Amino acid sequence: MSPAIALAFLPLVVTLLVRYRHYFRLLVGTVLLRSLRDCLSGLRIEERAFSYVLTHALPGDPGHILTTLDHWSSHYEYLSHMGPVKGQILMRLVEEKAPACVLELGTYCGYSTLLIAQALPPGGRLLTVERDPRTATVAEKLIRLAGFDEHTVELIVGSSEEVIPCLRTQYQLSRADLVLLIHRPRCYLRDLQLLEAHDLLPAGATVLADHVLFPGAPRFLQYAKSCGRYRCRLHHTGLPDFPAIKDGIAQLTYAGPG
Description:
- The protein has a domain of 171 residues: 3-Layer(aba) Sandwich (Rossmann fold), CATH 3.40.50.
- It contains twelve helices and seven strands.
- A seven-stranded mixed β-sheet has the order 3-2-1-4-5-7-6, with helices on both faces.
- Strand 6 and strand 7 form a beta hairpin.
- It starts with a helix and ends with a strand.
- It catalyses: a catechol + S-adenosyl-L-methionine = a guaiacol + S-adenosyl-L-homocysteine + H(+).
- One of its GO terms (molecular function) is catechol O-methyltransferase activity.
- It is found in: Endoplasmic reticulum.
């Protein structure tokens, strides 16, 4: 390519970089720099974050542990976690609905797990599912560090597709009053239909789904709005530490099989 042609494209390139600078920063932080740090340290980001929590957070204080994770994400490495803004929405809904049993698909580092656990009513139970054993190990340590035992928070290692059909028989979950989908948006629709098929959603159950706008779950949203079994509401937010990147949490209320 000649220098003249390259210069002709320069204004376009600059315009795109300025317009999509937030996405560019996110790409660099979550893919390029994270991969480099993984290689250099031999640890994943959630393991590095947990090491920071061990030296800076108060054991037995879930609120302080969450604040410490937020500080790590804002000042050191973007954690790709739920964050405080979405976290307030989640905690408010858990406190408002007072579910006897909550199912979380996608434990990741345990951030949203702690949010739910500290908002549960007395005697409430949380089952959280994480497919990656190494990530689950970190989350288990974080959950126990926060002071929650296995009677309150039970972590199941396995893919949601395999775990959901076994919830009733192996984990004594007859119904989930509140479900949080926070794993892979492309799996949301499949797993929602699995929950329906195995009769795990009672009438009035709340289903929350994160990241429905970024990276997005259009098939899930279309199904929820058109099948006639859900009342839908969208809570508009931004990504933690990237508020210019618009995202949202979908809140579905199950009306029953119809």
